[in-house]
Write a structure and sequence with these properties.
alpha+beta, 9 helices, 15% strand, rod-shaped
Length: 467
Amino acid sequence: MSDKISAPNVYLYAFQLQNDSKGSNNPLWKHCDKILANFTNKKLTPNLVFPPNSHTYREDLLPTVVLEFNENQPIEGFAQPLQIQDSYAFCLNIGCPEDGTADNVDIDLIEQFNPNRALLINGDDNFLGQTLLLTAWLPANSPDNLDSLKPLADKCRDALFHSDSPPVFYRSSKLFGSPIFEYGAISDTANYRHLLVWLLSDKQTDENFNKCQEEILNLLFHRHKVIKAFQDSRLIYDELDREYRIIEKNMEILQAQFSRGTVLTPTQLQEFQEQLKQLFSKAVTYTRLLRKLEDYDNTIVLNLNNYIDILQTICDILGIDKEELSILNHFSRKSALYMRSQIAGDLGYFRHGTNLIEQAIASIRGIVEIEQARSDRTNQLALRKSELGEKNRDDRLQSTVQAIGVGLAAGGIAASSGTDKVFETVQNYKIPILMQLHPFLFSFALSFAIALFAASITWWRTKPKKI
């Protein structure tokens, strides 16, 4: 079929969170002025008016600006900056009028709408994303078959992107009665670009589009908030995955340490206590990441509900059924639900990490408490033995003193109680060895023997018992 099209137009829808960059300092307006510099001397930033405290869903920040292009081709356009909820939005239209002056033009004309790839914004972390909508009228009597029109749609895409890494084809359908082709794979989070090529074949299509331009912009806003939340959740997934692997490795080390079953040294006990502190810190970080993942899921739910409500609003405006918006409805029925199921699976998997941390903390805490109790008991026993040792020494000293005292007393009593009579009795028996002793020596020996015997009996009865 012919590569001729009529009245091609490009619509850029770009969205950026306000966050800390509110008002004219938001990076989105710098991108806008940079884009406009390719077509006009007018700038948006100096003329923007920001409401001080807006509680409405949407605010116009500047009356529509008509761009005055001075080109050989009949190109015109407009720009509209907006505030939507917590974000800023920018709608830019660049294209040819539908007054017959741009009928049956070459597809290459589309290249002029994106000089130096100026329409492709590479934003910061607060940039929600952008959608490029390219519309063009088909020549009369063109086929209405999607497969037949896809090569033409691909050429329009290539012309807009200058054939430099264009987004891949995703799906096709009809919107408001005319074929539309969607490009860009959401799964390619690092290089995602969203492009719609809408080949108009019915006047009613154009009328319906004009009636619902505001709703379509709002629809794309919530679409990009859903996608941005999912993209950010992938970053959290990577962080959680790293943390989970570290936790698993630490658990393996702990299990190896627990399996040894040996008494911990003071150094090892100190290491366990340090690990316990690290695990508490790890638990806080891990729980924070899980909470962020849940927050992204909640963000998807909130904006998905808004997306569905806006779809219903479009149906009410045009008096049509949602099935006629299949290419828009596909996002809420398929893509967004896939994102939610992915996050739900991540949460289910990574919550096991919380259980692992809790088990590790409980295990280490138990080991530390057991070892501390064992150490305390050992110290108490040592102290008790020391105290008992000192007491035994005191008791032995007291027993010895007492035995000596009793022995001396017994010896003294014996010496003063008539040992001479005993000596006379021994002499009468004429025991040879004893008869040779001097009476004094006999008396002394007998007294000493009695004293030693009395001291021995006393020491034996009073000595401290072994424990």
